[in-house]
From TrEMBL:
Origin: domain of life: Bacteria
Transmembrane segments: 20-41
UniProt-recorded name of the protein: DUF1501 domain-containing protein
Keyword set, alphabetical order: Membrane, Transmembrane, Transmembrane helix
InterPro entries assigned to the protein according to its UniProt record, in alphabetical order: Alkaline_phosphatase_core_sf, DUF1501, TAT_signal, TAT_signal_bac_arc
Organism (species): Maribacter chungangensis
SUPFAM superfamilies, per database record: Alkaline phosphatase-like
Pfam families in alphabetical order: DUF1501 (PF07394)
Amino acid sequence: MSEKKILEDRSLFLNRRSFLGKAALGAGSVALASLLGSQFFRKDKNGIITKADDFGGNNGMLNALHHASKAKRVIYLFQSGGPSQLELFDYKPTLIKRRGQELPDSIRQGQRLTGMTSGQSSFPLAGSVFDFKQYGQNGTYISDLLPYTAKMVDELCIIKSMYTEAINHDPAVTFFQTGSQQPGRPSIGSWLSYGLGSENKNLPAFSVLLSRGSGRPSGQPLYTRLWGNGFLHSLHQGVQFRAAKDPVLYLNDPKGMTKEGKRAILDKLAEMNEKQFDDFGNPEIQSRIAQYEMAYKMQTSVPDVMKTDDEPDYIYKMYGADAKIPGTYAANCLLARRLAEQDVRFIQLYHMGWDQHDNLPGAIEKQAKDVDQASAALVADLKQRGLLEDTLVIWGGEFGRTNYSQGLLTDTNYGRDHHPRCFTMWMAGGGIKPGVVYGETDEFGYNIVKNPVHVHDFQATMLHLLGIDHEKLTYKYQGRRFRLTDVEGHVLKDVLV
């Protein structure tokens, strides 16, 4: 090849690289702006979020809410494993009267079963061994397992007609948290971070707290992808706060590092990353800069939130003795209130241990004790601080439990398998009608007979309360526009204030 030809090809290559680089830079900047909000950008050479910036959080991709919102934030108390609605909320005298009798085929209607009970030759009906009483202005039935919840029933909207398609834990939990049974989609908190952004410049928009229950301590595990960002930028993933010396991994500086030194390092990293961004135009580079800056700010804000020593004694008394033990459900409920006070957008609590296939009476009694007082205290605490009116609190699991016994049924013992056809959740605050029971199941507690509520209906309603039209919060990926509710979902207007 001639020297002239080489120079011509080289010139063409450089021109093409220059053009594509500049084009990617512009497209990347626009994409990042839509993800993070224009407040992230500065006009100087260092790009985004340096020590001179001062803003109250960051904007989401929505320029404005689709309609007036009732809620500003969400605290989701996810009860992982599938709490038995028949022991807690859905009182069924028929099951008690017909205890031990076979589940009628007309009720089961050929529903598929899990591999854990599909081999059973008999499906004996099992009424709860726990008593129910009526509480509140509407005489709502609540189990004796939940005495604290019973006292605040007039604050709750109890939905007895939830249903889902998933019959096993992993796809069922994934469905609730991401809108799809298949992994890889963004979680609810990530969608909200993407759409609404954050109202706190020193804490993440999406925080996660985990606790393990005493009902079944070695029960179903949870995976970090449940609070992952999926195909959204990594800035929107949930940040897990741990019950350990370091609440957030890799947040603390090594010994000898000063605040000034750390600031200088971050500024230099930002400058280097900006140069790389100029070459490649990948918005994820900018997201990484933003994450470095958030970590820097969290070094002071996270310890302040996690340290609860300044809480008065009456607060610990409200939440229960476990509130002083880091990592317990009660302690996490208290932390959730503190995060809500700091305007964290989405606060996700996971409490494991509800998967009770055998020895259900003994296991669920322990599990209910874990959560009852603290859940009620959280609602009461938010209300006394004026936060409940714009904070949506959600309590529930991924599916319910069967009305027949898994394994041997005795006078004092039985188990229950997974049941996706009907189960119970409750919501409070944030624009939800208080003191309401919505939906109804049949006398056997097996099928829904009034006002069914699908998982996507629940998700659409939650987004509606936050001022979002669930059909309009979308993200284009691999040629398709995705949303949390996929292609379904209806807002439950009857439960809204």
